[in-house]
Amino acid sequence: MPAWRPTSHVPADIAPRLLDELPPDAESPVVSFLRRAHARHLVNRDGVVATYIPELASVDPEAFGIVIATVDGAVYEMGDTRKPFTIQSMAKPLTYASILDLYGAAAVRERIGVEPTGDVFNAISLAPATGMPLNPMVNAGAITAVGMVPPARAAGEPGRIDQLLASLGRFAGRRLEVDEAVYRSERDTGHRNRAIANLLRGTGAIDGDPDAVLDAYFRLCAVSVDARDLALIAATLAAGGLHPLTATVAASEDTVRDVLSVMATCGMYDGAGEWLFEVGLPAKSGVSGGILAVLPGQLGIGVWSPRLDGRGNSVRGVAVCRDLARDLDLHLVRGVRPIGAVRTRTSVARRPSKRGRSVPERETLAVEAGRSLVLELQGSIGFVAVETLAREAVIGGERPSAVAIDLRRSTRIDPAVTVLLADLVAGLGTRGAAVAWSAVGGHEAVLDRVDETLAARRLAPPRRFAELDLALEWAEDVVLSRSGASADARPERRFVPLAQHPALRGLDPAAVERLRSALERRDFHPGDALVRHGEPAEELFLVTGGLLSVWVPMGSGDARRLATLDAGDLVGELAFLGREQRTADVRADTEVEAYVLRHEAFEALAAVDPATTTVFLTTLLRIVAGIARRMTDEVVQLAS
Amino acid sequence: MPAWRPTSHVPADIAPRLLDELPPDAESPVVSFLRRAHARHLVNRDGVVATYIPELASVDPEAFGIVIATVDGAVYEMGDTRKPFTIQSMAKPLTYASILDLYGAAAVRERIGVEPTGDVFNAISLAPATGMPLNPMVNAGAITAVGMVPPARAAGEPGRIDQLLASLGRFAGRRLEVDEAVYRSERDTGHRNRAIANLLRGTGAIDGDPDAVLDAYFRLCAVSVDARDLALIAATLAAGGLHPLTATVAASEDTVRDVLSVMATCGMYDGAGEWLFEVGLPAKSGVSGGILAVLPGQLGIGVWSPRLDGRGNSVRGVAVCRDLARDLDLHLVRGVRPIGAVRTRTSVARRPSKRGRSVPERETLAVEAGRSLVLELQGSIGFVAVETLAREAVIGGERPSAVAIDLRRSTRIDPAVTVLLADLVAGLGTRGAAVAWSAVGGHEAVLDRVDETLAARRLAPPRRFAELDLALEWAEDVVLSRSGASADARPERRFVPLAQHPALRGLDPAAVERLRSALERRDFHPGDALVRHGEPAEELFLVTGGLLSVWVPMGSGDARRLATLDAGDLVGELAFLGREQRTADVRADTEVEAYVLRHEAFEALAAVDPATTTVFLTTLLRIVAGIARRMTDEVVQLAS
């Protein structure tokens, strides 16, 4: 939610020039934009209020509200954004959405076309050959759509209008009500719509009692909304049917695509080509003076100003939509190249796992780690993303042994690309690569479908890992096994006699014995903590056997594995030397054998045997310097 | 360019089922998709080849090619993608682009409308009231457009067709030629077009000699292209007019928006609503059997298969477009929420500059650095990006003193958001924040316009920095100066007597004197290197005065500032202890005073005075451990 909100409505008597000179008063630039647009068009008093029923004629003709709502729930309001008016024809796209969700596009298209008509808003607009309505945005199409909503079969069951109100409420994100006075007026004066309904009954576009259908239709047109509702309805359409604030699904993605397609050409009482050319946003207007307009994937716009042009569209509403489209470059065909789906492309040579490796393994990896590929994806993974991913996987004709694809920053995998992803995995397999996904949380369903597609081709599914570091470890293991590295060299099998521990390097046997007298052997079981975050650092551990992991607590309460350690490593050297608090947890992954050097014991030794402690400190310094250098390299890499 | 390319065309007699069982043979998933689509529709032999001129009738009816070209220059081909055919009506959107670029949309719309027509491809389609063509995609509109291209005024000047060929060539990315045989046939049989041209001359839609206009029009229809050309023309439209391979501007962005708007409703010989509903891609077809279709911002599609349906569209071409739209979810109104424009949001507390700070400065920053905000943008910065940026700038009602906005990963700033950015800067100023841009390279023109907008409001322009680290340093300076930190504490003013250098901490005066005898004073001027990347590490420097920077060479030949150092710091301690090669350059930024400890001198001292060297090593170890810890923290932060 934006912290910058309009704090007051613009008084109607402030001239735009004056407004532009007001200090911006720390408001969002979006609000500044709306403020200027509101002031610029407020002076426009062209057009007339609809008068075909008294309730519409009695509205304040000066009323003017503009709202922008983003798909992630920011709402910006300016002017009369909370005053009620009736939804009128703006209910039509939502009614169409209801029946598309109920029956699917094919069945609905048997009754209602998708062709625009240049006719005025209350034209009859039936296709000459079939007698079916040309599209769902004209009255005939909307009445037909209402007729397709199943009526209540028994007392107490929801009737057509109840179902439609529930659907509208999901789009608006709140419970909506019928304005009874407007409904009665519509009903009592709706002779032309009565004629249309009877014609439709005659052609078979609607079944049953036309009066019952009409009653629901009149109530639907009389549903009370405000400009904020229009923007949130539009934002829900922009978000593929998911309401930005309630996170309720108001319609399926396919339905929303079909609704927006029709709104693009048939939504305004206007030339079909002209609206798309001039404004380029799928939109729907109503005779109450509202317009809702949609920039798919990004935002919804709601405008309300009751004076209408000769075609029945809000004069100011059209002007605001044109401003937004032209001044802000919001236009359906104004494509923006998506940010690259591949956020980073590297290998375990540049981004090694935290798993500690034996010397032979390290030597092998130093040569072979470039035979891996680590691709971090971001954003929504659709066709273009997979195309990019496929290219990144084979740049320069490389033939990696292992490809890890990280999904932590992927917001969504479009189910439409299932087969493409299976093709990608299969293609990489043919080129000799094993493939793994990491950070798969939330994407399991689509990955399952990829696996099924592969299984149908008798191909093995990719591995899946919960976090990237584990996939990196897997990639290293693949590289190692392809290089014929021996399993005997695996870290968990190694024990280092204390005298050969790297921390004691450079000491003669007598010095080792003197140092050993200051050390205390200690064993740990899997899960035991050697050091704990926040505790004072009093001990240094020389690990002689087993595997350990270093976990750094993250803000969220999670921990991240920073490193793994094994025989020959040290635990706690940084904090021990600085005499500070531990900044991480170190826990045993296996049975662990270690020797502990307490701080007092070391100081006692230094007092009596400075030569030994000098050598020991120099060795420690080299180890720590190596850590500092590795971390520096990692910083340079991560920041580049 | 993709490394995965089709290596052969699909033989016409391979059934699709068989193809699906072929091993994918390490091809791109995009090629796999095209291969399947090609095989699936190859068996469709519906429709008939156009026969109104013999040259069209003589084409191989089985010919079938599909090409996808992305806006960044990847081209995927399947089937007959390099066989020539004539462009026919697919020249119409490009002719329209030419005159839009020449005259602007307003002047062009006085002669040619933008309304779709359900008429067949060679209908006359003039607006009843004005006699002007309904849209530029019908023959009347295209002939009018050709008539608006200025004729040659003197011998040797390019005529209409020369100008149009040059424009088409920019869209295709290669020089195109007229197929003379087809041209002569079109000319000799084009009676209906001759009638249209004379009608247009009568209504005033074209001026001058209709035969001259018609001659250029017939040549234009007879331009020879292949399916790859169509895809690259479409990709150029998808890229807003920039050819993906030649990087030549074929048309302005506004022109391309207008062209695509008209293609969305008028491009296919089809119901205007139906194409948008079923396929949802702006497209244009021709009677030679080609279709070009555009997914704005992402890709272009070219399909060629000569058999036409009753409306004059390629049967297989329409089917392929529908597959792409439906199977791959490519549809104009299928909006994808852009990846967040704000890639990272942090402060100089979490992301300090590399500038070394004095102790009082560090103490102030430790408390106050959170009063800064560092926002790294990514991708194309349009309205939605600025809206997000504005929200991120005020999350939780924070009131930062300094806001640094980094543009390194911003591909483009839409000129349409100039005023919004000025509003943002002004609004942040009202909230008490100074604002700076970093990594401004390439964005200067738009930022100049932001500055102009601010200047008109008598507001100061934001600072600009070439790289983020300098903006971070600026943000720290702002925070420090707002906190009343003293300028006397600035690092460049400080000198540390050798005896008080942190590296000598813990040594008694006698020990300091003994160590001092092993040290050698050395002075450096601005630009001098203390250590050089790749050289052996033999020396440790204790800096007692001046400022230095550590530069790490990057792969590109650039260097990145990794740190700055000043009085009290060490240079070269890591490599010195490990006896390895230098991994960075360290250069003096000001006059620098330092004391050098050579490796041999240290070893000689250790042999005679182990107690002093123990204390010295312990101190060094603490310093290095501090570096390692800082770097570890930075890794955790950067990786999170």
Quickly describe the structure.
The structure is a homodimer. Chain A is built from 23 helices and 23 strands.
Computed over alpha carbons, the radius of gyration of chain A is: 34 Å
Low-confidence stretches of chain A: 1-25
State the oligomer.
homodimer
What CATH architecture of the largest domain in chain A would you give?
3-Layer(aba) Sandwich
Report the structural category of chain A: alpha+beta
User: Tell me, what's the shape of chain A?
Assistant: elongated
Number of strands of chain A: 23
Alpha plus pi helix count of chain A = 23
Mean pLDDT score of chain A, rounded?
Answer: 86
Please, how many domains of chain A? 3
Protein traits:
alpha+beta, Beta-lactamase, Jelly Rolls, 3 domains, 5-stranded antiparallel sheet, 5-stranded mixed sheet
